Amino acid sequence: MNVTVETGDPKTLTLLEENARYMRHEQFANLVANIRRDGDLTQIPFVWHDTTTDTRHVLSGNHRVMAAMEAGLTEIKWLETSDPLNKSQRLAIQLSHNAIAGEDDASILAKLYQEIDDLEMKQYSGLDDKALDLLREAQVDSLQEPKLEFQTLSYVFLPGDGDEVMRVFEEAVKYASKATETWLARYEDHFRLLQAVEEASSSYDVRNRSAALTYILDIYENHRDELQQGYTSPDTDKPKHKRTVPITTILNTDYIGAEDAILIKKALNRMKELGHTDNTKGAPEQLAQLARQYIDNNK
User: Fold this and answer.
1) Of 16, 147, 200, 290, which has the fewest beta carbons less than 10 angstroms from its beta carbon?
2) Residues 72, 102: one domain?
C-alpha cells in the first residue's frame, strides 16, 4: 500500500457514516481539550483518497478529526493512500485500527464485520476472541433500531452550593431506588424542568441557571409536606400504599432541636417502661404509636 503524509483542512475530509468505535462525552471532551492545548494531532488519522470522485474518506481517526474541528484547527496532518480499495478492504482497515481510545458498539461492529466478504480481510481486521464473542451475542434484530440523540446540560456550582445540591439529589435517588419500576421521562416533563429554571431565573433576576436550580430546590424543600399527597388518600385515613415514605414529608425538615430530640427520646423510653410499645420496633413505629395514643386520649 502506498501511503503519504498529507496536510489540509479537516473539514474537507469525509467521516464514516457507521463507526463501531464510539466515545463517551467525557472522553471526547478530554480529546478536544488535549488537541486544543497541543495545537495539533499527536496521532494522525488514516484516509483513503477515492480518486474517481476526488473525495477523502477517514477510515480511522474519525473522533480525532471531529475533535480537531471542535478545537478550531484549520490544518491537520493525516496518512493517505490513493490505492484502489474495495469495500471489504476499507472495512477491514477501519476495524483493524481500533487501538484508538473508545469502546465498541457490538451491534454495529457485528454488522460491519459481516459485510467483509473476504476471509483474509476478516483476519486482517484483527478482531480477537473477546470481540468475536460480542459479535455472536449481538442481536441482528436490534440493528435497525433508531439511535436516541441526547443533549448534555452542564450545571456549575460553587463548592458550598454544590454540596447542598448533591445532598438533595442523593436524597431523591435514595427514595427513587425503592421503586419497583423505571420510567423514561417524556420530553414534556423535561420541558417543565427547563421552564421552572427559566421562571426561577427571571423571578430572582439571576442569569446563572445553576443558581436558578438551587432556588427551585429550596422551594421544593419548603414544600416537601405536599408529597403527602402521594401516599395519603384524600377521603379516608387509609394510606394509598404500604411502602415506606420519607419522614421529612411530615416534619418538613431533616433536623429537630436538641431539646425536642431529648424529649421525644424520654417519651419513647417511658412507653417501653409502661409496656405501651414493643422494644423490637424502630423509632418511627414508636413515634406513630405515641401519636396514636395522643389522638385516642384527646378525642
Assistant:
1) 147
2) yes
Which of 120, 144, 168 terminates a domain? The answer is: 144
Is the model's pLDDT at 147 over the cut of 90? no
Which residue(s) pair with 103 in the sheet? 22
Taking only the tens place, the pLDDT of each residue in 17-50 is 777 666 777 778 878 888 888 888 878 889 999 9
Q: How many helices (H) and strands (E) does the chain have?
A: 12, 6
Q: Rounded to an integer, what distance in angstroms lies between the CA atom of residue 82 and that of residue 66?
A: 22
160: left (phi over 0), alpha (psi -120 to 50) or beta: alpha
Q: How many residues does the chain have?
A: 299
Residue finishing a domain among 111, 144, 177: 144
Cell (9 digits) for 35? 488537541
- Claim to verify: residue 202 and residue 118 sit in the same structural domain: no
Q: How many domains does the chain have?
A: 4
Segment 217-229, tens digit of pLDDT: 888 878 877 888 8
In sequence order, the 6+-apart residues with CB closer than 8 A to the CB of 63 are 21, 23, 28, 31, 100, 102
Distance CA(241)–CA(246), nearest Å, equals 13
Do residue 55 and residue 122 come from a single domain? yes
pLDDT, one tens digit per residue, over 113-125 is 777 777 776 765 6
Domain range for 16 is 4-144
Provide the pairing of β-strand 55-60 with 103-104: unpaired
69 and 192 part of one domain? no
Do residues 162 and 140 share a domain? no
